[in-house]
Amino acid sequence: METIDRLSYDEQKLLVETLLRQDYAIELISSEINDIESGLKQVDEGFYHQLKLLYDRLRIK
Amino acid sequence: METIDRLSYDEQKLLVETLLRQDYAIELISSEINDIESGLKQVDEGFYHQLKLLYDRLRIK
Predict the structure, then answer these.
(1) InterPro entries attached here (chains A, B) (predicted)?
(2) In A40, B18, B58, B60, which residue has its Cα 20 to 30 A from A7's Cα atom?
(3) Structural domain for A20, as ranges
(4) Is A47 inside a domain boundary?
(5) In this structure, is residue B35 part of a structural domain?
């Protein structure tokens, strides 16, 4: 799996732009939240909290 | 559709991290390339070229 620090800033920006162009950001975040809430993935509380905040941000368009 | 400049740097980074955790980055980029090559989307040559470079980067893991 690629890690974020192997991607340049421009590459990271291009990924985010494409994610938004494909209108897939909210599905991606909700899928990650579901994986965590169903116990499929373990993350620290802070990461989970950030995901929830971002999900709410993306929902309010 | 959300725009990149309405997202903070941390929110953009969280989107990229989640994209990589979900191992969905390469599907996302190839989907965008397909939309462009099939004429579904018009983009400037530079954006298309960046997508192709990023696709090759993501393929070589």
Answers:
(1) Antirep_AbbA
(2) A40
(3) 8-59
(4) yes
(5) yes
User: Which chain A residues have a beta carbon less than 8 Å from that of B14?
Assistant: 50-51, 54
Instruction: Look at residue A36 and tell me if it is in a domain.
Output: yes
What Cα–Cα distance (Å) separates residue B28 from each residue in A35, A50, B10, B25, B59?
19, 22, 21, 5, 12
- Name the token pair of A41: 């993935």
ipTM above 0.90, yes or no: no
Write out pLDDT tens, residues A4-23: 888 999 999 999 999 998 88
Report, as an integer, the average pLDDT of B33-53.
94
The total domain count for chain A is 1
pLDDT, chain B, mean: 90
Residue of chain A with shortest Cα separation from B54? A11
